[in-house]
Amino acid sequence: MTVLKTSMRNFFAHKGRMALSAIAVLLSVAFVCGTLVFTDTTNATFDQLFASTSSDVSVKPKKEGGSNNGPQTGKIETVPGTRLAELKKVQGVKSVDGEISTETVTVVDKNNDDIGPKSGAPTVATNWDPTELLAVDLTSGHEPRGPTEVMLDADTAKNKKLKIGDELRLIAVPGEFRAKIVGLTTFKVTNPGATIVYTDTATAQSKLLGRPDAYTSFALTAQPGVSNDQLKKNVVAAIGDGYKVQTKDESAEEGKDDIGSFLDIMKYAMLGFAGIAVLVGIFLIVNTFSMLVAQRTREIGLMRAIGSSRKQVNRSVLIEALLLGVVGSVLGVLGGIGLAVGLMKFMGSQGLNISTDQLTVKPATPIIGLTIGIVVTVIAAYIPARRAGKISPMAALRDAGTPADAKAGRIRGAIGLLLTGAGVVALVAAANADKATDGSMLLGLGVLLTLIGFIVIGPLLAGLVVRVLAAVILRIFGPVGRMAERNALRNPRRTGATGAALMIGLALVACLSVVGSSMVASASDELDKSVGADFIVQSDGGKPITGDVVKAVHAAKGLDHVTDVKNLNDTKITTPDGKTSTDNLVAADPKFADDLRTPVVDGTLSDAYGKDAISVSEDFAKDHKVKMGDTLTVTFVGGRTAAKLKVAAITSDDTSLNKGAKYVNITTAERYIPADKMPVNAMMLAAAKDGQEKAAYASLKAQLDDYPQVKVRDQTDYKKMMKDQIGQLLNLVYGLLALAIVVAVLGVVNTLALSVVERTREIGLMRAIGMSRRQLRRMIRLESVVIALFGALLGLGLGMGWGATAQKLLALEGLKTLEIPWSTIITVFIGSAVVGLVAALLPAFRAGRMNVLNAIATE
């Protein structure tokens, strides 16, 4: 009980000193709990949506070739309309509704702007039938009654400023048509972020599918007393197993699995960044308790002198840590719920509306948050607690502070050097690996060992690096700079731990910057070397390039030629050894050999576009013992008969563009695939006539102006697109890493604040012998800057090493250019100095306000 009272007294006596550590625990726990609450709420929302919108039994087409070929062929797999009458006769069926739904449509407003969501969610065009009322209410206007009328979801109407009476243009694979908005619908559960356009059934069949007597699925309602499982059995018995028949629960589960896989990726990624923040927070807590123990050496010595045992002293410090963990964790759980609500609001602004009414806080969430916060805090305080327990009663006769253990320092240094050396060996082995899979494992091991090694060896590095930084930066400030250097070197273990917290976040920033820049530079170099075409035409979101778009591109002026490129997915290839594999082929016009200059190891690529010819990749040829002149049996999805194609070229895998691709002529594919099964263009390439590049580019832009879903880019545009895409991803990652960096900055603030308290008498003496407040504040700011730059140097150096090793692995995939983003590295380094200045503002201000006499009299 005495130990508990002492711990409570010390905790509340030093609550100001504990505050920043508590904030670190709070932030880390909040990020973990916020992630769990957000994903649980999103899952619960979509579970409710899928459960409420699924019919008792649904009948859908089986996906041909094991995948949905809608995007490939431009045509949606359907169920014949003749099945409608058969299904109505099935025993136990109360009603059957035919459904039509497609995501291959583009909808534009009167300004020719795509009204689809920018968040990546789809635009869905569907027919209005009774099953839609399971998900939405018709809140304005009336249902569509002909080919010139559509309904729209109210959220899209609000976001795009559309109203009843406005005209829309729907661009579908069979063609395009115009219709006016006659009604608005509102989701009962949530708008999943998609744009939903409703037509009548006849219009959906003729305009969206191009097949007047077909449906994409049937929704069956069971008669009272008939279970969904029984109805499913009856349906399968009536129409056979050639269709995908699912009960309400099975359909809902499939929907949950589809969205759940994405949410799981997001959840674990965010938890990974939360883990980094927790790791950084450990350094802050270790430093806090180490300094508190050092400052209370005389007090602890006196406790030992009057009879307290080592265990009691140890237990006293751990109880303080427990109190800190409990306070920080409880606040973190509450903060996590607030963070989740804020994230839902943000996602709502991006089009994914998740109602806070569905807020889901599972019992496991606060338990996980409290466990993480408390356990991490207690573990982090364990070493300082052991150190406190070892303080002898004689320490009460000495000044506050414990002498450094030279032997322990040497052992720590040796272990750190050993770990760092092993990590460097692993990184070198990864850089020289022959296979990316082997190299990635070595890279992970090297990253882990070098990180731990740098953390362990931090105090030794602090002594070396701080002296170098001081010689370059601090000496120009004269005596104040030298004093700041000595303060930073006074306790290398503390400086090493503070710098290590910042090092972790900046190492990841530097690594990802190197990888991202190298990917962009490699792709740009490969583009310059391999792409001979002047223009690349692609459709956003994987939507098919429709026939109207193809005609528009071919009609552009100033072009030397246009190359159509189609993907033949899920093609079965039987090699001479009798083995069959499923692969993807690229069908293109012969000019594709000039538009995309793929290196070959045998043969001539242009020969692969001859009659009944094919090219294969180098790895495929090695794996299947295929050589020039061999005949492959190729079965295309939807093909009438198997094709016998002769290997006319073997392409090199020493490239990043279309690595491993196999090429055939479009005319070859057309001989074996019926016209209605032939894929639409995946992309188009075009070359301008000599001297007409600008005119051709302008003509292509004008021709495609009516099709906002299709983008034409020259090589400069394409490089910018790649850079922007990678940049957006990196910015997202940097944003998540910012939490760890914020916690690290709190560590710098806390270290300085406690250091000022620790040096109260010293500060008073310096002020007494003539140091001004301005000089004192500058000294503390310079100390903070050098600690921050120490962490930045370690982090940036370590991260660039990781990034360079990762680039060597990317080189095995054809991305061969190593690009160090010096502008980013220098900006981060300078930013670290600014961070150091900002972190020192409050401690320096407090130090400057100290009363000189009171400071000198401090024990």
UniProtKB/TrEMBL annotation:
Domain ABC3 transporter permease C-terminal, first and last residues per copy: 273-393, 736-851
Any one Pfam family match given in the protein's UniProt record, by short name: FtsX
Stretches assigned to the MacB-like periplasmic core domain: 19-236, 498-700
Q: What's the protein's topology in the membrane?
A: Multi-pass membrane protein
Gene Ontology CC annotation, any one:
plasma membrane
Q: What are the GO MF terms of this UniProt record?
A: transmembrane transporter activity
Listed A to Z, the keywords are:
Cell membrane, Membrane, Transmembrane, Transmembrane helix
Q: Can you say where in the cell this protein is located?
A: Cell membrane
Spans annotated as Disordered: 57-77
Q: Can you tell me where the transmembrane regions are?
A: 268-294, 317-344, 364-385, 414-433, 445-478, 499-521, 732-757, 778-800, 820-842
In which family does this protein belong, per the annotation? Answer: Belongs to the ABC-4 integral membrane protein family.
Q: What is this protein called?
A: ABC transport system integral membrane protein
**Species in which this protein is naturally found:** Streptomyces bingchenggensis (strain BCW-1)
